[in-house]
Design a protein that fits this description.
Elements lengths: L1 E5 L1 E4 L2 E4 L2 E4 L2 E4 L2 H9 L3 E5 L6 H5 L4 E4 L24 H17 L3 E4 L1 H9 L3 E3 L2 H4 L17 E2 L1 E2 L3 H6 L4 E2 L6 E4 L4 E5 L5 E5 L6 E4 L9 H11 L1
Parallel strand pairs: 1-6, 1-7, 7-8, 8-16
Antiparallel strand pairs: 2-5, 3-4, 9-13, 10-12, 11-14, 14-15, 15-16
Helix pairs in contact: 3-4
Amino acid sequence: MLILLTTDHREGGGLREGPRVRPVREEHFLADPYVRAVRSAGAMPLLLPPGEPELEALLERVDGVVITGGNFDIHPDHYGLVPSTALGRVDEQRTDAELQLARLCIARDVPVLGVCGGMQALAVAAGGTLIQDIATEIPGALEHEQPTDPAEGWHQVFLEPSMLRHTLGRAPVVNSTHHQSVADPGEMRVTGRAPDGVVEAIELANHRFCLGVQWHPELLGDRLYRMFIDVARR
């Protein structure tokens, strides 16, 4: 069983060969907890660099997709807003690739899990919009970039009746490592919010599995990944 996971990338870097380092033009990489979560849930991870030209053919060979998080913002051009002064670093190559992937998963009923920025990509792909910076746009909001280890919980999420609530319960404690969030989920439905009202989970009705969470479940155990892979296996 194959699960496709999007990867990050950076220019430059090098590969160590004994005492020497061989320079490379670009590196593609993914944090290990994603890989471990997929493996522990019983599937094989397949890493996807941005810009894959045969994406549609590849989707026919995999059982599900995880759109992973990354240290970048989705430019508001993608959802029709003017950039805020608080907008962070953008990555157009990865954004374009992940929005294309999200739209294909939605259109083809491919099981897809969006994690952190991956949830935001799902929302934008479904016609939604984002809050560009929680601290400046939501007065009195919680601190959503936790100063503690993200392997520890930071705040509760209150879940509506949904697939997610059935697995995690009504109010799980989650981690928090983001400064943007979903404003309008488009065709998707908000199924979870933080105590300050910030959107933390979205799901798409009439789809095998199309779910986004704003936290990083791969750092908190594998229940959500097991649910995702169980559905993708059917």
